[in-house]
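Lab notebook, bench 4. The sequencing result for the construct came back, and we need a structural model before the next group meeting so we can plan mutations. Quick request posted to the team channel:

Model the 3D structure of this chain.
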Amino acid sequence: MKILNKILLASILTVGFAQAKDKDFSTSIEAIEALKVGVNKVNVSIKSKTIPVYDADVKLKVYHSDKKIVKYRSNKIDKNGNYVFNVELPDTKKYNYLLSYNRKGGVIHRDRGSFKVQ
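Done. Here's the predicted structure in token form:
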């Protein structure tokens, strides 16, 4: 009986981890207008395969060159299915970001990239 329980538990965990692969998710980060100094509206689109994810807890960290980190958080979407952030970019330079999101307390997915303000 113990062996059967272990096999069942191992198979459930394997299926759970297989469903949580990052390759099943895609993200896209776009500014509504060209990035400028000041506050910019940034859309974040998250999809599971081809289906939009509406119930995610989304966090965006923007790294400034003076080692300052600004954190943003959203769990609300606009009418187009995008998570919208008002990101403050104080100078004309390159900013790195880390986007992290999870659904209902599940696996945390991460995506890195950069913004360039001109």
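The mean pLDDT is 82.
Will bring this to the meeting.
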